[in-house]
Design goal:
By secondary structure, the chain is mainly beta. The protein is 4% helix and 17% strand.
């Protein structure tokens, strides 16, 4: 009798589930401004007192809320969370209508 083949290796453990975002974190983005609009990359670059008005948006679609660290008074960021779909932004103003073409001659 030929020897039995070895059993297949166990499948790798599934990755741990992502921790859920803070309660209503995606809704917390509404009314805040992206750091990119200021040309900033990190919440810690914000002046003290304005932290709660901004959020970080990473290239992979990850978000972090900026908030003030009470112990030091500087700005820091929350844990990463993802919004799917991204929060609705207010509609941008429509461009003015283009002028009518000149009449044919």
């Amino acid at each position: 009798v030929p020897p039995r083949p070895p059993p297949p290796p166990p499948s790798p453990a599934p990755p741990p589930p992502l921790s859920p975002p803070p309660p209503d974190a995606c809704g917390s983005l509404l009314g805040r401004t992206s750091l990119r609009s200021l040309g900033l990359m990190y919440c810690s670059e914000l002046p003290t007192g304005s932290c709660d008005s901004y959020y970080y948006l990473g290239k992979a679609g990850n978000h972090r809320l900026c908030h003030e660290r009470s112990s030091r008074g500087d700005c820091m960021s929350s844990e990463i969370f993802y919004c799917s779909p991204p929060p609705a932004l207010p509609p941008s103003p429509l461009p003015p209508p283009s002028p009518p073409p000149p009449p044919p001659r």
